[in-house]
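User: If you would, consider this record:
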Amino acid sequence: MNPHGRTSTGTLLQDQNITFASTTPPDQKAAATVETIARACYQSLNDRKFDVVDYPWTPHISPSFEMSNAQAMRLTTTSRAAMLENFKAIAAEHPNCHIEVESCSTVLHKYGKELKADVYVNTRGGAGPVYEEGLVRKTVTIFEFWLVEGVWVGYKGTAIDGMGEDRSFN
């Protein structure tokens, strides 16, 4: 759950005042910030940095971070620590597993004085538990960040299959 006690469905959409793409300079700065955090998360996974006290896990990923996944690579988790333990186990079993960020886009939402960012991250993952060595799978992960006391904090991530065929890395 995010810091404002809202969920991603129901009243959140009813309370929504404005949804806008990141086109003005302050909005572009906010979008760049959350996209940098999202990219740093993937880089930390690739670098096998699974300690919750390290950047970006602290301060940018909530201890109650929820990760849901439609793929077998990652289980659904309900905490930052559980998510990192899951990735640590995957890395131990599949040492060549890696995730490459292809692109990011962000949509900002304002709810009164509250600010939320949905970051859509397109990735290619290779050498993981659901595909053989040399193949890649595309994934889209939607990260939900909220601005809390001047710091962007991730509270939820949802990963779904990306578009296109599984292919070999070239």
In short: The radius of gyration is 16 Å. The first helix runs from residue 11 to 15.
